[in-house]
């Protein structure tokens, strides 16, 4: 079975502070992992995917196969980062599995 | 943004009535999905389609049916709406052959807010 776990439902940080949103997964094969962001009442948008190793809006995420984690990090949080963040996993059957999401609030 | 249009965007309906949500894509992607989004549950897959007339159930399919008669359209029907189906419904698309060099990605529509009273 494929599972994605985001242990934090809510996360608050001050502007300028580092932020880390946790994601752990369980998957028997080689997963494709993603982070999606959802601003208030909008569609989910792709933030980044591990396969392309890109950095979007200052966010990065490293796949740690030993710890089965794909934590999202940003060194200096901005107010516009306040949103809901979803970690997702894609399997070989083209199914996508999402975590329950973490709501990030950046305090001015 | 991916060319995905959902309709209606907002609907209020009465318990026991049938409801159909429509998803239309202009990307010619093979896979289409319907998810529901609820607080504390995140996104849960209702049904998905891997081609015209090819559909399968997701984890929360009870009370829902789908149809895909054309590549671009994927319909979600609540056969007899209940209050527990009050939710935000998101359509999504993907195509594993679309971007082989950078991996598959799923793209979402803007959501349909459904309230069952």
Question: Could you characterize what this model shows?
Answer:
The complex is a heterodimer of chains A (108) and B (117). In chain A, β5 and β6 form a beta hairpin. Chain A has strands spanning 3-5, 10-14, 19-21, 24-26, 32-38, 45-49, 60-61, 72-74, 83-90, 96-98, 102-107. The N and C termini of chain A lie far apart (41 Å). Chain A is mainly β and 108 residues long. In chain A, the strands form three sheets. In chain A, strands 2, 5, 6, 9, 10 and 11 form a six-stranded mixed beta sheet that branches. A three-stranded antiparallel beta sheet of chain A has the order 3-8-7, with no helix packed on it. The model of chain A has no long low-confidence stretch (mean pLDDT 90). By secondary structure, chain B is an all-beta fold. Chain B contains no helices and eleven strands. In chain B, the strands form two sheets. In chain B, strands 2, 4, 5, 6, 9, 10 and 11 form a seven-stranded mixed beta sheet that branches. At the A-B interface, β5, β6 and β9 of A face β4, β5, β9 and β10 of B.
Low-confidence stretches of chain A: none
Please report which band the strand proportion of chain B falls in: under 5%, 5-15%, 15-25%, 25-35%, 35-45% or over 45%: over 45%
Largest sheet of chain A: 6 strands, mixed
User: Helical percent range of chain B?
Assistant: under 10%
Bin the helical content of chain A.
under 10%
Largest contact between protein chains? A-B, 24 and 25 residues
Number of strands of chain A: 11
Helix tally of chain B?
0
Question: How far apart lie the N and C ends of chain A?
Answer: 41 Å
Number of strands of chain B: 11
The description of the largest β-sheet of chain B is: 7 strands, mixed
Sum up the overall morphology of chain A in one term.
globular
Q: What kind of oligomer do you see? A: heterodimer
Which class best fits the helix and strand makeup of chain B?
mainly beta
One letter per element, helices H and strands E, the order of chain B comes to EEEEEEEEEEE
Distance between the termini of chain B: 33 Å
Number of helices of chain A: 0
Nearest-integer average pLDDT of chain B = 92
Low-confidence runs of chain B: none
User: What percent strand of chain A?
Assistant: 35-45%
